[in-house]
Amino acid sequence: MQRFAVIVAGGRGLRMNSEIPKQFLLLRGKPVLMHTLEAFYVAYPDMQIILVLPIDHIPTWQTLISDHGFKLNHTVVEGGAERFESVKNGLKRCTNGIVGIHDGVRPLITPELIRRCYEQAEERGSAIPVVPITQSLRKLDGERNVPFDRTGVHAVQTPQCFRVEALKLAYQKPFQKAFTDDATVYEAEHGSVHVLKGDELNLKITTLSDLHIAEAILAGTQQQG
Amino acid sequence: MQRFAVIVAGGRGLRMNSEIPKQFLLLRGKPVLMHTLEAFYVAYPDMQIILVLPIDHIPTWQTLISDHGFKLNHTVVEGGAERFESVKNGLKRCTNGIVGIHDGVRPLITPELIRRCYEQAEERGSAIPVVPITQSLRKLDGERNVPFDRTGVHAVQTPQCFRVEALKLAYQKPFQKAFTDDATVYEAEHGSVHVLKGDELNLKITTLSDLHIAEAILAGTQQQG
Predict the structure, then answer these.
(1) Would the pTM of this model clear 0.90, i.e. be above it?
(2) Alpha-carbon distance A96 to A75, whole Å?
(3) Does the beta carbon of B193 lie under 8 angstroms from any beta carbon of chain A?
(4) Residue of B nearest to A197 (CA)
(5) Of A96, A195, A220, B19, which one has the fewest beta carbons inside 10 Å?
């Protein structure tokens, strides 16, 4: 069974108060994106890694590869204007097998969770990692706000894994606003997805605080390890 | 206007893989709970602080006060079996004015957010800090799971601030399952609450990872300060 990872890294750094796109910021001295790619390689050394980057970020990535002596084999693909287009471009490089679509700015993904996702997708056709929402919720609607039952409510993570042919078919549809992730694209064609337990620490880095938090988690993990 | 803070710290440490209740764990060398109390004191030096602790934790707290030379004036009150009872016990020590009910394990609360909450409660009768949910959501229901619209969905934080007499009246009702926080207790009597913008970093410490994260946030904040 061939395995593909489409790593999507379109971030522009807008939310970070930083000129550097967040996927290139240093985490323990190494660009966020290199942590991400390494986790997929550790999970499956024969993984085919496809990295989707905005065209104007590709030279930066090439410089970083050289500066950090990054040896990991991967294919760089040009992204589209929207994430939907970027994933579609990445999928063109995938043939028969299982593909995981992953946010480049989730560098704390563990090889263990990656393997569980690919295994379950192989068995069930799809595998989406989710974690329960543990905070009390409230829904705001203009001037009104009401308590909001969190029963069953989960946050969705990546990698979202699918059989390649089935996901490619789903991505033939024109883009819809309801397509907030790959699971929703897949569902529109195939009806339902399989969910599995994600990892609270599989953080998406969207602010500088998140970067500090990721540093702290890595420090804690390595102390234990 | 007299201001009261009821700090509720009933945690048993069960989720922490630690014998030490989480409110007593050290954050930058100082128990979590001391950080929390200090923030309220910095916000308003004339704040009346009521700390609600399980009876068997009171000797530990007294030892920590002595060991850390903690000078801040506060009243210790015995907690009940449930948070609802603990808050009710704390409220008995409050007279006319504004009261904020706060989780003892939210030590990163800033004096600035505390002041905004008390000011708005004085003006509007209640003030509940909330932050938008930014993750994609999915609702699980047995074998089924469906995408879940996060529009307007916010996570609820503390301090939750109210006029003392109004909150005391609300707490006369018998406990109901729907009472997940002070806002829901207040609403059952008074119909609605006022919400305001909370702080993403006002973290609730429920796991050891959260403690590492809090350390990282404090390190980051102090670098900037």
Answers:
(1) no
(2) 17
(3) yes
(4) B140
(5) B19
